[in-house]
Amino acid sequence: MIIIILWIIFSFLIGAIASNKKVGFWGGTFLSLLLSPLIGLIIALVSSEKSTKSEATKYLIKADKEMRQGSFQQAIQSANTAVNLNNNFPLAYYRLATLHSIRSDKESAFLCLEKAVSLGYSNFDKLNKDPNLEWLRRRPEWEQFRTAGYKKTSSNSGYINELNELSNLRDKGIITEDEFIAKKQRILNETK
């Protein structure tokens, strides 16, 4: 009787271990109950991590909601979290561009819009009509930015290269996420 109780308890513990893996809580628990807690543990440990894309999408939806409510700073934080979870997410960069445009932060808006396009954002009709980008489109450098394929061509492109290099260092694990955020903010502050 004690073996059955321990088997069940360990199966649920394995499920907890598997909760952030693709196999999931219930998959880990079921496999442990069916096969054995030891085999369930092995499967949970070798199972790959859950995709961060779904988490990033949740934060982007949260950013959209906060933006509609007028909580722009919170929306920027949520969109930044989406980017941190999936730095190849063009819609998150697009949302950041619109938020920075609303807040009249020209350099950040251009930078995020350039990144969104470089990652594959291609709804140029929306980009050229989105009321949230109206302020940015009225900047003198907009036309040059647009005709250059939505790329910044001024002397400020040096900081873009610096930010890209910083992102590469983060992706390679050379610097931590906190170091990346602090250095990114310093670079953006220097360009204003």
From TrEMBL:
It holds the Pfam family SHOCT. InterPro entries: SHOCT (IPR018649), TPR-like_helical_dom_sf (IPR011990), TPR_rpt (IPR019734). Keywords: Membrane, Transmembrane, Transmembrane helix. Residues 162-188 form the SHOCT domain. The chain crosses the membrane at residues 28-46. SMART domains: TPR. This is SHOCT domain-containing protein.
